[in-house]
Amino acid sequence: MGGKLLLIMPRPITREARERKPTLEEIKRRCTKKSKVAEQLGAWSLDALMANPPRNRKRVRAVRRAPDGSAFRKCNSCGVSVAIALADLHECETKKVVVQRFRGVSERPNVVKPTFGDQPRSAFRVFMESFVKTCKTINVITIDQNGLDTWKNMSKEERKPYIIEAERVNHSYGKALLEEVDNLQEVIQLYWVLSSWILV
């Protein structure tokens, strides 16, 4: 503890001192002593030294009222009684004004989504695609259950057209993939040729 702390001990008060009124000089002396104590303790004011410093009062806003004094009012468009505090949140069935914006500003750019028609598939997947088209129920779970039961009960000869279709799709997908790899190798070779030409 580097700093010294000055403690002021109160003197015993006599009866004469109690009855006598303090002079203006004594009052000033007491105030300077208190301010010195506050400075030594690092407080900006005596309020900071008090156990219960005065609090700032919070401002309380009154509840909004209608002209007649009630806390509710009727909506002009739908006629429903609405609390005034929630009136700005009230949405009635009126026509909303649709804000039209420029196409280039608000819309996202058109991203070409990849088609999955040429992706590799199993024979069961090909069968399920055709089964969903012929099925009349809307429930997806029952369609899947019925399709699986039908596939299990089919013989190998009944499954043959779906197997052939799946092999055809898988073969065309593999062929397209190999062509893409060949094109990629050509691009890489072209890149190396151009980069070596630029460095020379």
Write a compact overview of the structure shown.
GO terms for molecular function: DNA binding. This protein is an all-alpha fold and about 200 residues long.
Task: List the defining traits of the structure above.
HMG box domain-containing protein; DNA binding; 7 helices; two-stranded antiparallel ribbon; 200 residues
What does this structure look like?
With 200 residues, the chain is mostly helical. Among the domains are: 20-49; 123-199, no CATH class. The protein is 50% helix and 3% strand. It is built from 7 helices and 2 strands; from the N terminus they run H-H-H-E-E-H-H-H-H. It has a two-stranded antiparallel ribbon. Strand 1 and strand 2 form a beta hairpin. Helix 5 (123-134) crosses helix 6 (140-153) and helix 5 (123-134) packs across helix 7. It is elongated and about 125 Å long.
**What would the principal axes of the Cα set say about the shape?**
elongated
Strand content: under 5%
Taking all residues together, what is the mean pLDDT?
Answer: 74
The largest β sheet comes out as: 2 strands, antiparallel
> Could you give the order of strands across the largest sheet?
1-2
Cα gyration radius (Å): 44 Å
Distance between the termini: 74 Å
How many E strands?
2
How would you classify the helix and strand content by structural class? Answer: mainly alpha
Poorly predicted regions are none
Helicity level: 40-55%
Order of helices and strands: HHHEEHHHH
Give the number of helices. 7
GO biological process, one term: polar nucleus fusion
Organism: Carya illinoinensis
GO molecular function: DNA binding
Protein name: HMG box domain-containing protein
